[in-house]
Design goal:
With about 325 residues, this protein is an alpha+beta fold. It folds into 2 domains: about 120 residues, Nucleic acid-binding proteins (OB fold (Dihydrolipoamide Acetyltransferase, E2P)), CATH 2.40.50.140; about 140 residues, OB fold (Dihydrolipoamide Acetyltransferase, E2P) (Beta Barrel). Helix content is about 30%, strand content about 30%. It is built from 12 helices and 17 strands. The strands form 3 sheets. Strands 1, 2, 3, 4, 5, 6, 7 and 8 form an 8-stranded mixed beta sheet that branches. Strands 9-14-15-17-16 form a 5-stranded mixed barrel. Strand 3 and strand 4 form a beta hairpin. The two termini are about 45 Å apart. About 25% of the residues are buried. The structure holds a DNA duplex (20 and 20 nucleotides).
Length: about 325
Amino acid sequence: VVGHMKLVNGQSIHEAPVLDEVEIAKARRVLIHVQSHDGPVMKLYLWDQAAREFCKKFKSYEGTPTVLLVTTVNTKTLGGTLALTSMSSSRVFMDYDVQPTIDYFSWLGSNPDIAEQVNAEVVTKRETMTIGEIFSYIEQESAKCTATIDDVVHGSSWYYIACSGCHSKVSKGPTSLLCTNKKCGKVNVSGVPQYLSKISVYDNSDQAVFVLLGDAGRELTGKPASELVRSYFEANGNEGVNLEAPIPEALISTIGQKHKFCVKVTEHNLSGKTRSLTVTKILSLDTPPATASSEDNHTTATSEETSQNRVDSADGSKGACCSSELERAKRRKCGN
DNA sequence: AACATGACCGTGTTGCAGCG
DNA sequence: CGCTGCAACACGGTCATGTT
């Protein structure tokens, strides 16, 4: 494998990494983030003999070497990303050692943009973080993206009946509704409809299915699911209250709208099969497209704040203006 | 000899059951 | 109800074997 080094034991190659040979001897290995041409950045583990050889050569250079060639490496997939490990017979070459490294070095010289490219993955997948960084990373657990809704997924219900206490799903008992959340265990006289809607969205490059849950659904339509369900059955003279309400106009009319979605990636999303992401929050865009909701006043709705307030006025039943921290904490408590 | 591939083994983690 | 121990599983790391 030949490529240019990005990080050596977590230190950027541009900052002339200092190798502690004692430390490396103790750890028995060196970790190098290496990129071959414009391919993905790979983790390259050099063990024992190869690590020692690497150290020796790395230090022997006047300046910091950038090109690395390692023979006979094992390929491994570590946490989904490609990783390489050295073997007993692995040999290490750099910059002007052999013809292939010389060739690569000159190629790199004529493609300086690739050499300087900062790959997000290298930065985010660091081995060590400070406690503060971990906290801030946790804070950022939800990613934001802007996408356009192109459909509401049919074939599955757009809401579920939740416990009035904790918003977990309720199961139908003989005479009442039982909360499935063991820690809650509340017996409900009547459940509260909550959003669980799948919407199909797209942006410039991809298409995906987002799952809207309670609060996010209300943020999108401006109305709580309970109100939409109630008004449907009221309009139909309470006929078939035990049946399911169809997808309401308020939800259908969001098709074509463009929003900034905060999505949360959970282990469920990462397990592969389901390519759906859970939406935790919906932010208004600066220039929201025309919406079908009549009472909406979007002229000043540029910030999260105003969007929240608008929702509250429509809802009224719940003081949802509490900090997102508190919301998250509550949800976590309930979920477990 | 150097290389490529994959099998195997040990360790860490997680889920479940049983017991206090 | 909570804790502990066990088992299953996944993953990382090493080693063996076949090929060039």
